[in-house]
């Protein structure tokens, strides 16, 4: 009987371990948020203690980029070092997110920020002198100190942006993933003039200390491309946040 009991205790221990892991995973899953209703932006700070910054933060994003308020100054130069990379495209329930393999980065002066992922908002989250755009692309970067920098690209309705076909041809449903190869640089405009400001993540937990570089030249996307994303996400943009005296900076 001893071997049987030993095996039974082993199986019981394994089951308890798996139950504990599943329970921990369930507890660690972030609370659901949405863009309207009882889980919408006005309620984000009430969904979890870790979301408090969504209402208490003073440097929240997005904001209106008022070109009349932009200060010209000597900013570090921006250079982009993207290449054809392996990309995992997922539908995370809030947007289409494209996770990028290591190797792509941007340089802001002497500081390098590695591209982690990019995703889409419809309509745009930021506005440019009060103007909304049909799409906004956020390219999310991290430096070696773990600081976040987001490069924001507006997409205006017009001619087809061929690069978007790579990401929008077969948009994944929730809990589905697609493997792609593409160069994220194909999502950028020709000129990289930007407005820099200090803000936050635009989704919970709304963490601050994020450097935003908002490109002022948009790319163009066709109505068909925009509508294809909008069919999945008709409204996934956070309302504008007050500037609270923040400086909008652009290069000389």
Question: Describe it for me?
Answer:
The chain is 21% helix and 34% strand. The chain is of the alpha/beta class and 252 residues long. It has one domain (61-251): Alpha carbonic anhydrase (Carbonic Anhydrase II), CATH 3.10.200.10. Strands 3, 4, 5, 6, 7, 9, 10, 11, 12, 13 and 14 form an 11-stranded mixed sheet that branches. The longest helix is centred in the N-terminal third of the chain and has 27 residues, at 2-28. It is globular and about 40 Å long.
The gist of it:
The chain has 252 residues and is of the alpha/beta class. The protein has a single domain, classed as Alpha carbonic anhydrase (Carbonic Anhydrase II, Roll), CATH 3.10.200. The protein is built from 5 helices and 15 strands.
User: CATH-wise, what's the superfamily?
Assistant: Alpha carbonic anhydrase
N to C succession of SSEs: HHHEEEEEEEEEEHEEEEHE
Total beta-strand segments: 15
Structural class: alpha/beta
| Cα gyration radius (Å) | 21 Å
CATH fold annotation: Carbonic Anhydrase II
CATH class: Alpha Beta
Share of helix, binned:
10-25%
Mean pLDDT: 91
Give the CA-CA distance, first to last residue.
83 Å
Low-confidence stretches: 8-19, 21-27
The largest pleated sheet is described as: 11 strands, mixed
Total helical segments: 5
What percentage of amino acids are in beta strands? 25-35%
CATH architecture descriptor: Roll
The total number of structural domains is 1
Shape: globular
């Amino acid at each position: 009987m001893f071997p049987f009991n030993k095996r039974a205790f082993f199986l019981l221990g394994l089951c308890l371990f798996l139950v504990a892991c599943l329970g921990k995973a369930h507890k660690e899953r972030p609370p659901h948020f949405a863009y309207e209703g009882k889980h919408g932006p006005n309620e984000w700070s009430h969904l979890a203690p870790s979301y408090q910054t969504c209402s208490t933060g003073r440097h929240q994003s997005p904001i209106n980029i008022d070109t009349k308020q932009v200060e010209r100054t000597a900013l570090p130069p921006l250079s982009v070092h993207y290449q054809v990379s392996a990309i995992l495209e997922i539908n995370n329930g809030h947007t289409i997110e494209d996770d990028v393999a290591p190797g792509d980065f941007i340089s802001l002066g002497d500081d390098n920020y590695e591209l982690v992922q990019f995703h889409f908002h419809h309509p745009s989250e930021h506005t440019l002198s009060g103007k909304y755009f049909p799409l906004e692309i956020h390219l999310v970067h991290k430096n070696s100190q773990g600081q976040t920098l987001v490069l924001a690209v507006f997409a205006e309705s017009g001619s087809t942006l061929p690069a978007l076909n790579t990401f929008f041809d077969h948009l994944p449903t929730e809990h589905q993933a697609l493997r792609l190869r593409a160069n994220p640089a194909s999502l950028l405009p020709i000129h990289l003039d930007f407005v820099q400001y200090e803000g936050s993540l635009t989704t919970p937990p709304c963490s601050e200390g994020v450097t935003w570089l908002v490109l002022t030249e948009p790319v163009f996307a066709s109505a068909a491309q925009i509508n294809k994303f909008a069919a999945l996400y008709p409204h996934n943009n956070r309302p504008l946040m007050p500037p609270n005296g923040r400086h909008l900076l652009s290069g000389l």
